[in-house]
Amino acid sequence: MPNIRKKQHLGLIGMLLIAVSFAGLHLTAVTGRASPDTKNYLSYALSLSGESREEAGRRAIAYSCASGQHASLSPVPWTNRKTVGESEEQCVRRLDNSVAYWSRHGNTSGMTAPFANQRFMAIFEARPGYPLFLVPFVAAFGITWGLWLAGLVIALAGSVCVLLTLRAASASRRAGLAGQALYLALPTGTVAMNPLSDGLSLALGTAVVLGCVLLLRDRPRTDGASGTGGGPGAGAWAAAAGPRSGAALVAGGLASMFFVRYSQALLLAAALAGALLLWAGWLRRNRRQFTPVLRAAALCAGLTVCVYVGAHLLGWPMGRDSAQDLLTHHYQRPDLPNPWPEFFVQEGVFWSAWLRRQAASPVLPVLLALSAWALLRRRSVVLPLALAAGAAGLLNQAGHPNLGQLYGFRLIVFLWLLPVLAIPLLLDRPSREPSPVPAQPEEVGGGQRDGTVGVAHQVREGA
Question: Which stretches are transmembrane (predicted)?
């Protein structure tokens, strides 16, 4: 028992060291992260905190223009801050003029300041979760430090969920810490730190994946090897949590994502439902226990329907609106009667350029190749879930084939969860089990022993 608690303390220390290192690195770029959409979320948050729409817009403009004056070079990996193209005064004047113009042309209501026409701003009105999350940070620490601290909390929360996901799937402590470090070092960490809704959506997505892993276990582990001796540590919690906790995380995570970025919630839920349904079919065909997987698929499918129906009933912009937004330059030109032919042309143009970009800078292809190796060499409940998360990222980018996002990561960021969750598994010894899903221990006399591997058991290595 003392040895187990010592290892738990070492794991906690490792987790904290990674978090502190990440925070220290990002202290070099407290500001300078604002994108054109940041002012929309910030003005929404300031309006929620009680400021008038006009004052909220003025402060959001001041922050956005001041942020744009910082140098484009940064020691923080993966940041692509654009080179300054105008002075702060010119930026403020341009945005003030834009607000005045759209106020005169009908944009007189809503929580966000009138930076554009009302139809375009409705996209941000339909994402109240992120502005609401920002309110206490901005109120307590001001705009600059409040946005930075909110991003830090989001990034660290997502990284801890990745660590817990790997530990809940019986990965070793070193694999869990590697997953946490990868999440923070790759574009997932940078996107989480940027003052946009994508980071919070990503963190909630990692909680949903964690919930799926827990949901696939018929009961929590309580054996000594799992490290549930009551001491601190991510492994102890991951081993002790069970299906009820998993169902709560899946439902709560997707419900929260609905208010943060409902389109990504819809795609993630649908991708998870599809992947789990295919997996359950494969298990059934091979005469293995498939009930927990089918149960998880049913939950994700039900939540997919709920997200879609909820967005429709609230009148939030849907897929057709997104296509018109792209093709009419944010609704500043007349709608196309049938946007889909031109939209699919844009798809071809975007993905051709994206593939050329990956060939010129093959970091993601290399990481995906390592992920494929992990898929072939390891058996883990995490892998099909990681594939589903990656598919959700590809689908999200496919819904926005904008060449302006070619060098960015935020729309496709869920794809990076595949290497984050898969590559750390290569640090563990290959499992000899015939199925990636865990089996229940069977009763023998007064105790328990492991039975035939079905849907609830994995060899715990490196515990």
Answer: 137-163, 175-193, 199-216, 237-259, 265-284, 296-316, 359-376, 381-400, 406-427
Residue 257 near residue 268 (C-beta atoms within 8 A): yes
Residue-level pLDDT at 56: 96
Average predicted confidence (pLDDT) for the chain: 86
d(C-alpha 383, C-alpha 425), whole Å: 9
Region 156-179 average pLDDT: 95
DSSP string computed for 149-195 = HHHHHHHHHHHHHHHHHHHHTT--HHHHHHHHHHHHHSHHHHHHHSS
- For the chain, the first-to-last Cα distance in angstroms comes to 13
94-122 pLDDT, tens digit each: 999 999 999 998 888 889 999 999 999 99
Q: Which one, of 49, 36, 125, lies nearest residue 82 by Cα?
A: 36
For the chain, percent of residues with pLDDT exceeding 70: 83
pLDDT tens for residues 47-58?
A: 999 999 999 999
Give the bridge partners for 449, in sequence order.
442
* CB 451, CB 440: distance < 8 Å: yes
∠ CA 5-11-15 to the nearest 5 degrees? 145
Whether the per-residue pLDDT at 353 is higher than 90: the answer is yes
Q: pLDDT by residue (tens digit) across 332-345?
A: 899 999 999 999 99
Please, where are the H alpha helices in 286-381? 291-313, 319-327, 340-360, 363-377
CA proximity to 112, closest of 206, 2, 197: 197
Which residues make Cβ contacts (< 8 Å) with residue 389, sequence separation at least 6? 205, 209, 268, 271, 272, 414, 417, 418, 421
Q: What distances in angstroms separate CA 39 from CA 62, 112, 124, 161, 432, one per listed residue?
A: 9, 9, 11, 29, 52
d(CA 140, CA 136): 6
pTM: 0.87
Residue type, 136: P
Q: How far apart are CA 236 and CA 227, in angstroms?
A: 5
Q: What tokens were used for 413?
A: 């960021």
